[in-house]
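Before relying on records like the one below, remember that each one covers exactly one chain. Contacts with other chains, cofactors or solvent are not represented anywhere in the record.
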Amino acid sequence: MEQYSITPLIILLPLAAFLLLGLFGNRFKPLTAGIIATLEMTATTVIAYFTAFSYFTSDRLPDGTFATFTPFDYVWLPLGEKLTFNMGILLDPISVMMLIVITTVSLMVHIYSLGYMKGEKGFQRYFAFLSLFTMSMLGLVVATNIFQMYLFWELVGVSSYLLIGFYYTKPSAIAASKKAFIVTRFADLGFLIGILVYGYYVGSYSFEYSAHLKAIATAGTMIPLALGLMIIGGAGKSAMFPFHLWLPDAMEGPTPVSALIHAATMVVAGVYLIARLFPLFVGFAPDVLHLAGYVGAFTALFAAVIACVQTDIKRVLAFSTISQIGFMIVALGVSTSADPHHGGLGYMASMFHLFTHAMFKALLFLGAGAVIHAVHSNEMKDMGGLWKYMPLTHITFLVACLAIAGIPPFSGFFSKDEILAATFMFSPTMGYLMTFIAGLTAFYMFRLYYNIFWAKPYEVKSGHGGHAHKPHEAPAVMTFPLLFLAAVTCVAGFIPFGNFVSSNGEAYHIHIDKQVAVTSVVVALVGIGIATLMYRGASRKVADGLERGFGFLYRAAVHRFYIDEIYQFVTHKIIFALISKPIAWFDRHVVDAFFDRLAWLAHVTATKIKGLQGGNVQSYAVVFLWGILAIMVALLFITFGVFWLM
C-alpha cells in the first residue's frame, strides 16, 4: 500500500491547478498559465503511470485475480449506523486503466492547446476549466461508491458545460452548452433516483457487492429497476439514443475540448458505469443489460448512417463517437456471464475498445483541429488536396482512419474484432448487424479522409493585402500530440489487454477469431473501396447520383432524422401548450392575483388607520384611554361573566 501513498495527488494536482488559475489566472501571462496547467498535468500523468505500473506488476491473489486497493477512504457524511457517504480512491483493473486513458489524452490536449488556443481571449480560463474537468473525471473513475461517483459525475457535467460554452459571446456556443446541460440533467435525474432506490433497499452505496448480496437478493425487482434508472444516466453522458442530440451541437466548443471530453473521456462515463456495476447486472438484472445492448446497437446504426452524409468534419466525428460508444454498450449488453471464456468476452472487448478508441478518436479530433486551424473552416467543401500542404497531419489522420475502420495491424482492428466475436456468440443476427455497421464506419471515415486530403485541389485564396493564403502544417506543439497518439494507435492493439482487464479479474488470453476477423476486414475494405470510388477524385458524379437516388432518406439523414425537430415540437408545442401554459395561467391569475389582493388589502387598511400615527399627542391619549377601557371591560367580563355563566 505504500506505493499508492501519492495516488491522491492524481486528483489534488488538477484541483490545485483549477483553483490557482481560476482565482489568480489573470495575474499570469496567458502562456505562463498554460505552461502551469500543462506541467501539472504532466506530473499527474507520471503519477498515474506509476500507479498503473505498481498495480499491474503486483502479485495476483491465489485465485489469479488482481487485488482491489483503497489507499484512501474516509466517511464524509454519516447517515446512521449502516448507511454512510464515503469519499476515497478505489484501485482495480478498470479504474487503473481509466487513469491511463484520461491522463494520457488530457496531457496531449493540454500540450496541443498551447498552440491551438494561442491568442484566444480567456486563455487562462480555458486551462482552468480543463483542469476542473480532468479532476472531475479522475474522481469519477476512482470512486469507492456510487454516491461519490454521482458527485463527480455532476462535476463532469458542469465542467463540460463551461468548456462547450467557452466562446460565450457566440450564440450557437451558448445554445449548445445549455442543450448539453439540460439533456444530461434529465438523464442524471434517473441516475439519482436509481442510486437512492438502490441505497434504500441495500443499505449501502459501496462497490463491494459481496458484503451485501443478501440485501440485494431480498430487494427483488427493485434492483433491476434501480439499475435500469442508473443506465438512463449513463445513456445521457454517453449520448445514447434518445439522449444523443446534445453531442453534435457540443462541437461548438474548442476542438481540443472535443478531443478530450467528447471523444475519449466524458462520453465513455456511461460505459464505465455499466462496467463498474457489471456484477450486479449479470447476477440480478441480465435482461436490463441486454436491453442496453439493443439500444446500443440501434444507436450505433443510427449514428453511422447520419455520419455518412454530414459535411462539417467535427460533426462527422461526433456521430462517429456516438456510433463507437454504441459498440462498447453492445459488447457489455451481450455479456451473459462473468466467466471471461463465455459472456465475459464482451466485457473485456468493451473495455479494450474504450482504450483504443480513446487514442485514435482523440487523434482524429486533434487532426481535424489542425485542418481547421489551417483553412479556417469546418466544412469539407473548403478543403481538399491538403495532403501536400500538411503531410504530418495527413499521415496521422490516415492512421486513425485505418484504426477506426478495423484494418490490421492498427489497434481498432483488435478491439473491434473482440466485440464482433462477442456479438456473434450472443446472436448471429446481432453479429452481422454490427459487422455491417463496421463497414459503414469504414465508408464514412474514408469519405471524410478523401474530402479533406484528396478531393478537389485546395483553392489558394488571397488574404489581407492580396497575399495568398496557403494552408500549412501546424506548429510542433500541435503536431507532437498527433505523432504520439498515432504511435500509440499503431501498437496498442498488441497489448495483451485481457491479461490486465477482464470481467472477473482473471487473465483472459485474446484469440483472434479468423472467420470473424476476415469477414470484418473484407467488409471494411468494401466500405473503403466505395468511399474511394465516390470521393477520391475531384468528380462527385457517383456521390451526387446516389444523393439524388436516395432522395428522402438522404435528406432525413442530413437533418439527423428530424429528432431535434421532434424534441422541439414535443417540448414547445405539446408540453408547453398542455402543461406549462395552464400552469403559467394558474400562477398569473390565481397565485399572483391572491397576493396582489392581499397587498391591496394591506394598502387600504394602512390608508384607513394611518391617522392613528399622525403625530397628535391628544389623539394618542384618546386611543390610549380607549385601549385601557377595552382591556378593563374584557377583564371584568372574564372575571364576572364566567361566574355568571356557571
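Residues 612 and 623 are 8 Å apart (CA to CA).
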